[in-house]
């Protein structure tokens, strides 16, 4: 995410490690303000058009952006999988330059972070990362909006992620470390975050004064306020033999009432879609401890905060 001469002004919204604590807190605050008084922001995108590139299927991302843009007075155009993977039919640079002729902003949900970076490099309009292989910054921002609504002061929150080290856990741990939130990453052996991503989180946590813990032992999860999980089987890995092996390896990492009680956690989070009775039990997902639909709604408000900031 490059910035203008004003270091708090967003030029793009690409990756969690390119956002400062001041920027994140401002976005969280703005998201909550827009949620409380959407009518005050309903003309921010008047006359503006947003091109939405989707290489991967989506429910929450597509709907939350489309309807959120509409609530801001703008127009959204969906560009789905029929256009193929970025860079195959035509160069990403050409795609970015063409869209910049028509659109005022580009939202992209893609396979590769390289595609996001290429779009931002060659587009003459702002680019928003709606998911890639390395990061899911819109999801993490919505999650910290949700945690702010639940707890108020984020610096008091202890957050643990249990499951596969993926784009969601990357964004969560980077954003937590930036914001000064104590974060514990619990993954099965062989499914950890990359060494580079862990190093990045450690450096950010050192700067913010928060605690970052990385372990493969579910038994040392410690006391937590919140436990977060995500699907164990990534999109495209639904092959039966692969899935059986993953489920067997991950079964000790299921988030259930027993784990919540062990960690003394009061809130469970999931970015959805959930594979019930795999990474999380149905009983816990549907319980009063679950804030999964608050998270889903806050996707729209968090993304609208990003859009308002990019157009301000």
UniProtKB/TrEMBL annotation:
Keywords: Transferase
Enzyme Commission no: 2.1.3.3
Gene3D superfamilies in the cross-refs: Aspartate/ornithine carbamoyltransferase
NCBIfam families membership: orni_carb_tr, PRK00779.1, PRK14805.1
Similarity section: Belongs to the aspartate/ornithine carbamoyltransferase superfamily.
Taxonomy, superkingdom: Bacteria
Every Aspartate/ornithine carbamoyltransferase carbamoyl-P binding domain range: 12-149
Record organism: Colwellia asteriadis
Name of protein: Ornithine carbamoyltransferase
Domain called Aspartate/ornithine carbamoyltransferase Asp/Orn-binding: residue spans: 157-309
